[in-house]
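Holo prediction. Input below; ligand is manganese (II) ion.
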Amino acid sequence: MRESWHEQFAEAPDVLLKARRGRTVVSVLGVAIGGDQFVVMAGPCSVESEHQLMATAYKVRSAGARVLRGGAFKPRSSPYSFQGLGREGLKLLASARNETGLAIVTEVMAEEDVPLVAEYADILQIGSRNMENDSLLEAAARSGRPILLKRGMMATIGDLLRSAQVVLSNSNANVILCERGIRTFETAMRNTFDAAGIALLKQVTHLPVIADPSHAAGVSELVPALAQIGIAAGADGLIVEVHPNPAEAWSDGEQSMDFPGFTAMMADLEPWIALHDARLHEQNPSEAQCVDLSFAKAVA
Ligand code: PEP
Ligand code: MN
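Structure of the complex:
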């Protein structure tokens, strides 16, 4: 790794790639994130009803998703907007897991809710607005559940890695990083998707990195292109918002894909994912060579 990156990210020593240290693979319910298969997480922004969640769960599973997303506790721009179903939403997520076998990722927003959310979720999401909430990060880390850490909308890559370090320092090695767009002067999109940030993360950290094209784009038309760019940049997976009827969604409808749109996107992504998987297989032999060399050194 470039020497200046060691200096730049010195506050996050445990998340940095090191010689002879393998990449972190986060395993949940038989799904390996950061392993040799690309993983798609998909589902509604908010859990709204049993019908909405179940219909979406079955649909995203048949299109190839392996993890179901859905918010039960929602960070909203307005205090008057829908704030999520809370415990009721968590119960619906758990029954969707039981019925479909999909692992569940859902956001936890408050330290005091960590035990409740950890009881139902397979992966705890720390949202953009809470990326630097250290007491929440510590509590989430101590739950023992894997953490999906979303990049703050005004956070640098260094800030993101420092927050990951907080989780690792609290005895939880299972962190997945997520690029979801950052704020720039551009206003035509909800956020600016930082593809270079993904490429950089893949060079500096052993943690899995996924892309969220939905919150970056803010509109569903741009989601397939950003998904492709995320894969090309080296992401290990995607997290995508999908809703049975986006026009009626209680949150983030404009950026949510409908079922036909999501199914079509997944089919179109196949060659991109195949390229990603092939690239990983190419990298593996060189890793094997690394091991051989260290063995040769040890016996010399
Ligand atoms: C979400 O995943 O619905 C969400 C609120 O994401 P972010 O924290 O990236 O805004
Ligand atoms: Mn959302």
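Residues 286-300 have pLDDT under 50 and may be disordered. That is the main takeaway for now.
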